[in-house]
Amino acid sequence: MWTQVVGKLALGLSPLTNHYWNTALQITPRGLATLPLTVDRRLITITFDFVSHRLAVELSDGGHATVPLGPRPVAEFYRLVMDALARLDVHARIWTVPVEVPNPVRFEADTTHRSYDAAAARACWQVLVQIKRVLERFRGGFLGKTSPVHFWWGSFDLAHTRFSGRPAPLHPGGIPNLADAVTREAYSHECISVGWWPGGGLAPILEPAFYAYAYPEPPGCPDAVIAPAGASYDIRMHEWILPYEAVRRAPDPDATLLEFAQTTYDAAADLGKWDRAALERPAPSGAPLPATDPSRLRRSG
Question: In terms of pTM, does the model score above 0.70?
Answer without folding.
Answer: yes
